[in-house]
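Quick one: structure for this chain?
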Amino acid sequence: MQMLDLNDRDVVYLAGPITNRQDGNRAAFERAEAHLRNAYKCEVINPARRTPGLSYCEYMAISMLDLDKATCLVLLPDWMTSLGACCERAIARRVGIAVQSLDAEVLA
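Got it. Here's what it folds into:
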């Protein structure tokens, strides 16, 4: 089983594809959130839980505000297919937020 470097003091921001995914990829985000909360007892910021109806730019602006609260960015397995997740990763690395990747079998 994959072990991430997280603990109950961490605030994790989840990043992965949402746009143009069936139901906004909510199932994958929800599984990831549940795993992180159960395994590490950390706080999780899940962007797939946002209210629908905003523009892409509005969602990304909220993402930047949420990312600023995080101690760690955790990437879903297919994050590379998402422009938003790529931007979130780049910003996290630039400002010194830890970046870790979640293995696909955790979401299976």
